[in-house]
Design goal:
With 319 residues, this protein is an alpha/beta fold. 29% of the residues lie in helices and 27% in strands. It is globular and about 60 Å long.
């Protein structure tokens, strides 16, 4: 089967640059697609190429604005009506994942709602990367390949040859990710105990582990307002840490996050291109690593009906 002739890739407007890199790795052209807005702001989507019988992969992150989610749903629905053979939603950043449980009265479990919407729209398979909570995989009653960016960040950090390295989890939720990173880099592990009085507001309380006269890598799945990671960096510096690096898969970077990180003790901020950063003027301390080869390899293996499990070798282990 000829990969160029049979595989089809489509993207909305959330992250066309990443979709183009993925297409180049896979060896296929992006199918033409029209995404416009009516005068009242409603989204209009049309796939311009013939996709009948195609193994179709739709690349679209669902970060804000909500139009990105609507584009994904409409692209899936349009593809189903256009008789695509199989529709795989490739979601490098799965938005709305932070609302993954009912932890207070009368709140929406939005991560499950979005999973239902994607399923109802007509997706046959899902590819995601570094979900905010791994159990979100169970919200889908579809085949789901959950990729881990650890292989990208671990290789990059290993190439920096940092001595006396301690990997730090900025909160309890990232312990598994930090532990897996520390194991791969043969580094020590430390945990920052953080209390969050309300959403997007954090206060550092305690430290588990030793960071004095150690180089630090703060590892997390995402950075939004950067309040947590900058508070952690300040706290670690006060405890005698040397150079502080941070690696966060998804660079949401809302509000004053970029300025906050630029003024923080963080020496280098690593993020992936799961969210489009091309429209932002990032300071020099930011470095964007591409996840296109990881996602592209998963797409190729799914298309060729090969195992994807070897891509999970750096995943955080349970327990």
């Amino acid at each position: 089967m000829n990969l160029r002739e049979e595989i089809k890739l489509v993207t909305g407007t959330s992250n066309r640059g990443l979709a183009e890199k993925i297409a180049a790795y896979v060896g296929a052209e992006l199918s033409e697609c029209t995404v416009t807005r009516f005068s009242d702001g409603e989204v209009f989507v049309q796939i311009d190429d013939n996709i009948r019988g195609a193994d179709l992969f739709i690349v679209q992150s669902t970060n804000a604005p909500a139009d990105n989610l609507m584009e994904l749903l409409m692209l899936i629905e349009a593809s189903r009506r256009a008789s695509a053979m199989r529709i795989t939603a490739v979601i490098p950043y799965y938005g709305y994942a932070r609302a993954d449980r009912k932890d207070r009265p009368r709140v929406s479990i939005t991560a499950k709602l979005v999973a239902n919407l994607i399923t109802t729209a007509g997706a046959d398979r899902i590819i995601t990367m570094d979900l905010h909570a791994s159990q979100i995989q169970g919200f889908f009653d579809l085949p789901h390949d959950h990729l881990y960016s650890s292989v990208i960040f671990n290789e990059h950090m290993a190439s920096m040859n940092l001595s006396n390295l301690t990997v730090v989890s900025p909160d309890v939720g990232s312990i598994k990710l930090a532990r897996a990173t520390a194991s791969k880099l043969d580094a020590d592990l430390a945990i920052v105990d953080k209390r969050r009085p309300k959403a997007n507001v954090s206060q550092v309380m305690n430290l588990i582990g030793e960071v004095k006269e150690r180089n630090i890598l703060i590892r997390d799945d995402m950075v939004d307002t950067a309040g947590s990671i900058c508070s952690a960096a300040d706290f670690l510096k006060q405890r005698g840490a040397l150079d502080i690096y941070a690696a966060c898969t998804h660079g949401v970077l809302s509000g004053e996050a970029i300025e906050r990180i630029d003024k923080s003790p963080i020496k280098k901020m690593l993020i992936s291109d799961s969210i489009d950063q091309s429209r932002r003027d990032l300071p020099e301390k930011f470095e964007v690593l591409s996840c296109s080869e990881l996602i592209g390899e998963a797409i190729k293996r799914i298309f060729e009906e090969e195992s994807v499990s070897s891509l999970f070798e750096d995943q955080p282990q349970p327990g």
